[in-house]
Amino acid sequence: MKQGKDLKKQWDTFIKNGDSAAFYDLYAHYHDYLTYIGLKKGAGTEKTKDGINDLFLYVYENQQRLDHIKNHHNYLITSFLRKLFRKEHFSAEESLDLLSLPDVPLYPSVEAQHIREHTTEQVSSTLKMYIGKLSESQAKMIYQKFYLGLSYEEISESNHVTVKTAYNTIYNAVEKLKKMIGNDNMGVLAIAVSLFSLLILFFLKNS
Amino acid sequence: MQDKDIGQLVNQESFLNYCFKRNDEDVRYWEKWLIENPGHQQEVENLKQMLILMGEGSRKRITEANFAQLQKKIKRSKQGAGAYPFWRKWSIAAAVALVISGTGLLLYVNTDKQVEIAGNQDIEPGGHKATLILANGQRLNLADAQNGSIAKQSGVRIRKTIDGQIIYEVSETGGNISADEYNIIETPVGGEYQVDLPDKTHVWLNSGSSLRYPLKFTGNERRVELRGEGYFEVAHNKAMPFKVSSGGQTVEVLGTHFNVTAYEDEKVVKTTLLQGSVKVAYGDVVKLLVPGQQAQLTKNKLNVVDDVDVEDVAAWKNGYFKFNESLESIMNKISRWYGVEVVYQMKPDADLTYSGKISRARKISAILKIIEFNGDVHFKVEGRKVYVTK
Q1: Which parts of B80-160 fold into alpha helices (H)?
Q2: Fewer Cβ atoms within 10 A, N terminus or C terminus of chain B?
Q3: B246 is in which domain, residue-wise?
């Protein structure tokens, strides 16, 4: 599992050469973590997104001047929080609280990777189309619930909806996709996955 | 538990913790439950796998959407009054910030670089210099002229308002002006001037340029001829479209702001629109421009380019250089403004981009230094020649 510090190579490459691919890697990686932190701290979906983009805009424009940064991970987190801070007028106490953040590993688990690799073409394309058709707020909530792991309460607060709406949105989205994929296709993939999980279950049971 | 609707499990945080392995206790609970309810194993697996895929899919969509917004912001800041230049990935990395304001504030500069100036002869920048050629052929040196009325022809008074600008005042009771009476305003290398034409159109003329125009606009169009570079703010007159001819092309305008670059020693005639709308015609090819677009005339082809950095294009008229282009392109501009000859002692790479922004009021060493900071190039100034080496 990749941690923020592991992207040092990408950071160095970007700072030295302005490499776009490295820049995208950094963004894709930190986008999850910073969204997680921002939402956890109650900044709301829009402000968090703007905070992340303003941070990376700054990094992009000041690529030449950031070569003195030794610890890019701390720099990015701190700068992000400071920006959000100013926007939300956080109190002094909260500021200390903000800085003590766990290094939450939100990155794809081994199992998730396995699933991704073994998904059939059909399921993949159905999924892609389905995700594309979701409304912006549906997609955001699913991302927050399933990928980032925020609670239903946190999601309702961040997206300015009632908790009930949060529950319904997620539930409906899952049901809809189930229908789209259909039972046959799920079966094929499920076999590969169940074997894997059963193995894990067996292993865990006996350890 | 037997009749439990598996779909409802999504509402339970503990189940989701199991799916995504977020809580050991929950994971143990649900694994135990699965062993006790083997009939549901398949369905739960299907569901879990789907949730994982939904998580990944939505992550991709949201991340990419947000990244796209970031790209837009980057683009916008590049075009706007952004203080820092846009670094393309293939431009040479060097250790500097390139914002130099008119007051000469240098930030984060690597002072190891020294531009070699032979014999302490740093070169002065250009200034307000131009010659006005009247209809009768008389030549007036505008730099030497006093402020105030400098000439009067056929009821048209020409006044120098301040250093660097003349305006035409057409009096109502003026005498008969024949349609053939033209004036030409010419700037030398190292000169620039502004003129308010008889119809109140305002023109900035860059170095080594000339503008030919009638003493009074009559008929159904206003026609002028440009050589070199001019920035136009055309006064509205629907009845008389404003037309600029240069390098074989004609730019037709109703009332708007645009820049035309038509130097004879350059391969492209460029017309950039900042505000309003213009038609650029070459032969029977006509292109309509919207703000932000640039028409490029090369050899015999007229093309339109989108999303040009208009700040780069209009920087000269606002008193500074703002560049993001090849070395040769920048050196051409420098040679015209400072009146120097550029001698290349190495072959400049046309694919490399150099960026920077600096006031035109600075001496030549200042701008050469900025270019050097971009990397891989070195300048030596001797007399009125600039030698370019690696």
Answers
A1: none
A2: N
A3: 219-318
Contact yes or no for A108 and B58 at CB 8 A: no
Q: How many CB atoms lie within 10 A of CB B135?
A: 18
Final residue of a structural domain among B300, B318, B336 = B318
Which whole-number Å values give the CA distances from B85 to A60, B63, B78, B309, in the listed order? 10, 26, 7, 11
Report CB contact under 8 Å: A194, B69: no
User: Taking the CB of residue B113, how many other CB atoms lie within 10 A of it?
Assistant: 17
Tens of pLDDT, residue by residue over A146-161, are 999 899 999 999 999 9
Long-range contacts of B147-155, Cβ-Cβ distance < 8 Å, separation of 24 or more: B153/B181, B153/B215, B154/B181, B154/B215, B154/B216
Please report which confidence band the pLDDT of residue A183 belongs to, taking 50, 70 and 90 as the band edges: low
pLDDT (tens digit per residue) in B164-173:
899 998 776 5
Q: What is the pTM of this model?
A: 0.47
Q: Which runs of consecutive H residues, i.e. helices, occur in chain B?
A: 13-19, 24-36, 41-79, 310-314, 327-338, 364-373
pLDDT of residue B1: 42
Of B7, B35, B42, the CB nearest to A190: B42
For A91, the domain range is 4-99
Closest chain A residue to B11 measured between Cα atoms? A167
CA distance A166 to B93: 48
Using pLDDT thresholds of 50, 70 and 90, give the confidence band for residue B157: confident
Query: Based on the structure, what is the number of domains in chain B?
Result: 3
DSSP tag of B127: B
Same domain, A27 and A92: yes
Which of A56, A130, A147, A167 to mutate to test binding with chain B, by most B CBs within 10 Å of its CB? A147
Whether the predicted pLDDT of B290 surpasses 70 = yes
Rounded Cα–Cα distance for residues B365 and B381 (Å): 8
* Whether residue B181 is found in the same domain as residue B263: no
The domain boundary, picked from A70, A99, A128, lies at A99
Indicate the average pLDDT of chain B.
Answer: 81
ipTM: 0.84
Give residues with Cβ within 8 angstroms of A68, minimum separation 6.
none
> How far are the Cα atoms of A24, A65, A73, B45, B344 from residue A61, in angstroms, in the given order?
14, 9, 18, 46, 31
Per DSSP, B158 falls in state E
Chain B CB contacts of A128 under 8 Å are 57
Task: Say yes or no to pLDDT of B289 above 70.
Answer: yes
Crossing angle of helices A72-88 and A92-99, in 10° steps, is 150
Half-sphere exposure of B293 (CA within 13 A, CB side): 16
What type of residue is B315?
A
Our CA-based measurement puts residue B89 at a distance from the nearest CA of chain A, in whole angstroms, of 5
